[in-house]
Amino acid sequence: MLIPIVVLVVATNVYVAAESALCPVPQHKVHFDYHIGSEDDPNHWFDLDKDTHCCDGSKQSPIDIRTQGAKCAKLGRIQYEPKPQGQISGNLKRNGHGASLAFFAKNRLVTKDMPFTDGEYVLDSMHFHSPSEHLVNGKHYDGELHMVHYKKEYGSVGAAVGKEDGLAVIGVFLEVTGASEDTAFNRFVEGVAKLKGDEPEEMSLDPRELLILDDDYFTYKGSLTTPPCSESVRWVVMELPILITKDRLRVLRDVPVSDGKPLYVDTNVRPHQPLNGRPVYLSC
After folding, report:
1. Which backbone phi and psi does 28 adopt, to 5 degrees?
2. How many helices (H) and strands (E) does the chain have?
3. Which residue has the higher pLDDT, 12 or 147?
4. Is there a contact between 71 and 282 (Cβ–Cβ < 8 Å)?
């Protein structure tokens, strides 16, 4: 999961013993990439900077979800407060590893229904990965949307990153078929297609339309999937994918990334991480 970070610095190869797996968002920008074999690839994230040592933690994401090993649990639906109704607005922009939509603070959605948590969680932003970061029984989907939430009492994603219960991320798989009927997803793709350079594009959509059967999901305790890899995330991975067409997926995969090449050259997917005995629950 991508968290925007601010000013560019050269990787310093500083490793700090993992006294805590709740790393803060660095105040400077830490350069990382996905090109396996480079100095900044996922195998080196933990020693890029003093604030990225959490990438070597024991509760990292993404994971390979094994359905037979998932524990059945009575869990509630993922439902947002009824207001605001309809579409909500935000700024869509390229983030160097794809594109992300940050919702305006005045009309963000709030839910009380994140599993194994208490309090309210605010939908802050969403972005995509292709192929999917999470696997199911060893297989990737064609893509994955991440809907990033922070616990309301902490006030922002930046403040929540360093809290044990600070973040919740809903992952929604994308699967290529012959049709694409999800209105919100199609609006997102249309917005991405309009992006030019670093200029943001204001757009509106209803994120509630992205949750197909909001009571069918997997959940586990994990981390951000990009530096600083803080282990502050309650993951909710929806079981049913959004059906999309090949041409719409191509729009997402053609987005230029930080080196100017299209996303599909190296993808923006962190390899799956060891489960290390963590329970994975299936709502049932």
Report:
1. -115, 165
2. 3, 17
3. 147
4. yes
Catalytic residue among 31, 44, 53, 97: 97
Strands 143-151, 167-176: pairing kind: antiparallel
Instruction: List domains and CATH numbers for the chain.
Output: 61-283 (3.10.200.10)
Q: Dihedral, CA atoms, 256, 259, 265, 266, nearest 10 degrees? A: -120
Task: Look up residue 82 and give its amino acid.
Answer: P
Residue in the block written with tokens 């919740």: 168
Whole-number Å distance between alpha carbons of 17 and 185: 41
**97 is a catalytic site residue:** yes
pLDDT tens digit sequence for 190-225: 999 999 988 999 999 999 999 988 899 999 999 999
Q: Per the structure block, which two tokens stand in for 116?
A: 């194994």
Q: For residue range 44-59, list pLDDT tens digits in order.
A: 999 999 999 999 999 9
